[in-house]
Structure prediction request, 146 residues.
Amino acid sequence: MLKRILLMTMLAGGTLVACGGSQKDVEVKGKDTETAKLAGDWEGDYKGNESGRTGTVKFSLQLGRHTADGEVFMGGETPLKIQFIEVEGGKIQGTIAPYTDPNCSCEVETSFLGTVAGDAISGMFSTKIGATGQIQTGTWQVTRKP
Prediction:
């Protein structure tokens, strides 16, 4: 539902880089009552603490579907792919497909966590640098569009 990119999308912020591609219809796991809270069009941004990177997060979820469409943008780069999203107890978590970070020319893995509060979702993400094992963090937020 939340095309993993969403929050992942959001979480991806830390060392989000331009490697990946758009992915449609990512499955969202969770009870209907939980996924219904995410119905609509969402837009926001992310910021990496260590990397300083920023970007845009967009996603859309329709009622009655357990799939989402979403994208995480890093300054005109190709959107990153989300692999997994789960919603439970007002919390959303997920992962982004591994991608190559241009700063280290190495593969990185990003996961994210957020809290749903009405028409806003905010949270954090962490990115593990494959070459060194270093963890970089960041924050993300989106709001439901009217």
About this structure: The first strand starts at residue 26 and ends at 29.
